[in-house]
Design brief:
alpha/beta, binds flavin-adenine dinucleotide, 23 strands, 583 residues, 5-stranded mixed beta sheet, 34% helix, 17% strand
Length: 583
């Protein structure tokens, strides 16, 4: 069945217009970095963000940020570890940019005021995480790295907020991208809950747009991602005709606190470190099961643990397993994992006295809006960085703590490229025109059905049958919406345009594309696990599935094999084995 995606979301006509040289959408590590760097070099930067500046996955990042800062370490070693984690489909040039520029970018974060944890010698403390063969993870506040980075970046922004070169709009949701007659992206339609001069839907025009809208975890019923992670950037870029790549590669974290059948949205992460300290997984009958699955038992690679948990839940007919940390003792747990213990207790669980119910939940999107090494998407004028993008850095599986790093490295590259192009007179102002085709809008009441369908059929473990059921369920939701579209103006009958219905529409479009490409990839690789194709199939699938909406609506996909350089480098990484995934 051909997947058809509409060209735009139904929204009121823009009631106001603003303009800037560059619009940055999103205020996580990627968006803030891009905006701060651009502000120093171009005249007018507009930073828009869906809720408040601090809301996003960056704020929640725990473990840290990876970079070869230790003199004993090297970017080349970081590169090799990243390639191994990516299971043969990383873009080597992108990884090289990440690892070679990463240390300088992390030092810039320090200059900006980020306070990383330091050792007695005053140097930044570096720790090791799964998949890294060196200590190269800088962290802050113990397990609160993202909060500290976000604090420092927002403080830097506040320090310049009176500067006429930058305007910040909070509670400003990007609905769709604006394009000129040649498909060049030249702005966004924006819904602002404003107090001042702009309110409601407007048009923000610019010579370039940087998408930094983060992840898409809310596509599933449960995720570690915050509520803003509804895949808006991927969906808007897809509708506009940008190439979206590797969307099937999604990381599911094995141990996320299970809060009951009805629980949905962002769920608390129970760090791998708890198992690292000796906690064990048992099924609901109290039986350990990981020893039979992998030589490393409970510390097996993350995707292996997630898969084993799914299998055990099926075997026992339960929707969760248990993580038993009682033998570690109250005093140790409170000292070693203060945030996790506090959060569990807030929610009525005490790891010191009872096993914690856990189940896998969505954690990270490795794919997204395809970009080149400069952060340029396939659409002129559109850039993407951070989790919304697919730079090729992560391949099929992100290496621990590489995502914060990717955000700063590629946001900086984008700022440099836009600066150069604007200075050279490239990307001149242009006129947006209404995109052809009827708009669509999905009622927010469909949100739960979308999330359930994705969780049931396109979760941690997939098969042709499960994916086909999800495809059918999502198609039925889309068809019902199409039937609702009323009259010549294309306004959706009975559905009120607004943040809820726009987000729900985005969840549907991302879910539809993801299931379509997951069906095509008939193998298991990294974050894409097929029970009916349990092995990796390099002959057919060592490459990327790239999707693009054609102007009439059908989405076409192409398969691009990886270049042989990746293979050579992977071979050079002998002795390395894919280990645990990221925090
Ligand atoms: C619990 C948890 C722990 C993690 N731990 C680590 C770790 O230790 N190390 C690591 O490297 N990575 C970690 N990650 C992943 C990492 O945090 C994210 O990949 C990274 O922060 C993404 O940054 P970003 O700037 O792309 O997006 P985000 O930080 O998610 O920011 C996206 C921004 O876009 C805005 N936005 C979204 N939609 C719209 C719209 N339509 N209009 C306007 N604005 C919009 C959001 O409001 C937000 O401001 C973790 C993630 C989670 C959830």
């Amino acid at each position: 069945m051909t997947l058809t995606i509409p060209s735009r979301l139904a929204a009121p006509e823009p009631g106001w217009t603003i303009s800037a040289d560059v619009i940055v959408a999103g205020s996580g590590i990627a968006g803030l970095t891009a905006a701060l760097r651009l502000r120093q070099r171009v005249d007018r930067v507009l930073l828009v963000t869906k809720t408040v500046l601090s809301e996003g996955s960056t704020e929640w990042a725990q473990g840290g940020i990876a970079a070869a800062l230790d003199p004993a370490d090297s970017p080349e070693e970081h590169l090799r570890d990243t390639l191994v984690a990516g299971v043969g489909v990383c873009d080597v040039a992108a990884v090289r940019a990440l690892v070679s520029e990463g240390p300088a970018r992390v030092r810039e974060l320090v200059s900006l005021g980020t306070e990383f944890d330091r050792g007695p010698d005053g140097e930044i403390s570096l720790t090791r995480e799964g998949g890294h063969h060196r200590d190269r993870i800088a962290h802050a506040g113990g397990d609160a790295t993202g909060r500290e980075i976000s604090r420092a970046l927002i403080a830097a922004l506040h320090a310049v907020q009176d500067d006429p070169g930058i305007e910040v709009l909070e509670h400003a949701l990007v609905v769709d991208l604006l394009q000129d007659a040649d498909q060049r992206v030249c702005g966004v339609t924006l819904h602002v809950i404003g107090e001042g001069q702009v309110d409601g839907v407007g048009a923000a025009q610019a010579r370039a747009v940087v998408l930094a809208t983060g992840g898409l975890g809310q596509v599933w019923s449960s995720t570690t991602n915050p509520s803003v992670a509804t895949g808006d950037g991927v969906a808007a870029a897809l509708r506009a005709g940008a190439v979206v790549t590797d969307l099937e590669f999604v990381q599911f974290h094995p141990t996320v606190l299970w809060l009951g059948e009805g629980a949905s949205g962002q769920q608390p992460l129970i760090s791998e470190a708890v198992r690292g300290e000796g906690a064990v997984l048992v099924d609901t009958a109290g039986v350990r099961f990981m020893q039979d699955v992998h030589p490393m038992a409970d510390l097996a690679p993350r995707d292996v643990v997630a898969r084993a948990i799914v299998a055990r839940m099926a075997l026992t007919g339960s929707d969760h397993v248990l993580l038993d940390a009682r033998h570690l003792g109250r005093e140790f747990l409170e000292r070693r994992f203060p945030s996790i213990v506090a959060r569990c207790r807030e929610l009525g669980f005490d790891p010191a006295t009872e096993p914690l119910p856990v189940a896998p939940a969505q954690h990270y999107a490795s794919g997204g809006v395809e970009t080149d090494l400069l952060g340029r998407s396939s659409l002129e004028g559109l850039y993407a960085c951070g989790e919304v993008s697919c730079t090729g850095v992560h391949g099929a599986n992100r290496l621990a703590s590489n995502s914060l790093l990717e955000g700063i490295v590629f946001a900086s590259r984008i700022a440099d490229d836009i600066t150069d192009r604007l200075a050279a007179g490239d990307l001149p102002p242009t006129t947006a025109r209404l995109r052809e085709g009827p708009p669509t809008l999905i009622d927010s009441t469909a949100r739960t059905a979308i999330q359930r369908a994705m969780t049931a059929g396109a979760g941690a473990v997939r098969s042709a049958g499960s994916l086909a059921s999800t495809v059918a369920a999502l198609a039925a939701i889309a068809a019902a919406a199409d039937a609702d579209v009323a009259g010549g103006d294309g306004s959706p009958g009975g559905v009120t345009p607004g943040p809820q219905s726009w987000e729900t529409s985005n969840l549907l479009h991302v879910g539809q594309l993801l299931t379509a490409v997951a069906l095509q990839r008939e193998e298991t690789r990294g974050g894409h696990v097929r029970s009916d194709f349990p092995d990796r199939d390099d002959a057919r699938f060592r490459g990327h599935i790239r999707a693009r909406r054609t102007p009439d609506g059908p989405v076409g996909t192409t398969y691009t094999p990886v270049e042989s350089a990746a293979e050579d480098l992977l071979a050079a990484a002998h002795g390395s084995t894919p280990q645990e995934g990221p925090r």
